[in-house]
Amino acid sequence: MVMSRDQNVRRSHSIKTDNSSFESVEVFKCLGRILRNQNYIQEEIKSRLKSGSACCHLVQNVLCSGLLSNNTKINIHRIIILPFVLYGCGTLSLLLREERRLRVFENRVLWGIFGPKRDGVRGEWIKLHIEKLNDLYCSSNIVRVIKSRRMRWVGHVAPMGERRGVYKVLVGKPEGKSPLGRSRPRW
C-alpha cells in the first residue's frame, strides 16, 4: 500500500521490488487491523468498538446479574471486553473525536455493570453521572490505557538501531509538502 497525499500515486497499478511485483491497494486487513492509505483510523476504531460491543452483548447477562460483585464484573470487563477494543492500539494516533467515542463505549459498559442506583430520599431510580462512574471504576480510563501503551511501544522501539525499519519510521521525517492549514493533532 502506498501512503501519500498525492492522488496520482494511488493510481499506479503495481509496486516492484527485487523480483516481486505487488498490487497497489487503498485498503487491506492485516492481523485483524484495517489499514488505509490515507491513515484515517475512524474505520479501525469503528471495527474495534463493534467487536467490543459484540463481546459485551455476549456477556451482558453476567454483567447485569445481581449475583456477582462489582469487582468481579469489572474484572470480566477488563479481561474479556477490553482486549477486543484495545487490540493493536499502541500504534493508533487518536483525535478528540475518537477519544470521545472510546469513552462513550466505556461509560456504556460501566453503566451496564453498576446499573442505576435507588435514591434513598425520593425512592426513585437514577442513572449514575460520569463522575460517579469514574469514582466507582478506580482504574484508568480507556484513553489513558491507549496512551500508556503507545509510550510503552515507543520505549520498546527507541533502543533499536538505526538499521531497523521501525526505528526509521519513529524518528524519520516525511518527505514532500504538507497541506495548507493547521495540522491535525496527532501523537
Describe the structure.
There is one protein chain. With 187 residues, the protein is mainly alpha-helical. It folds into two domains: 1-39, no CATH class; 40-168, no CATH class. It has seven helices and six strands, in the order ββββααααββααα. It has helices at 42-58, 60-63, 70-86, 96-114, 130-136, 142-157, 165-171; strands at 14-17, 20-23, 27-30, 33-36, 117-118, 125-126. It has a two-stranded antiparallel sheet. Strands 3-4 form a two-stranded antiparallel sheet. A two-stranded antiparallel ribbon has the order 5-6. The radius of gyration is 21 Å and the shape is elongated. The relative contact order is 0.10.
Q: End-to-end distance, in Å?
A: 22 Å
Secondary structure tally: strands: 6
Mean pLDDT: 79
Helix content: 40-55%
The tally of helices reads: 7
Number of domains: 2
Outline, from the CA principal axes?
elongated
Order of helices and strands: EEEEHHHHEEHHH
Low-confidence stretches: none
| Main sheet specs | 2 strands, antiparallel
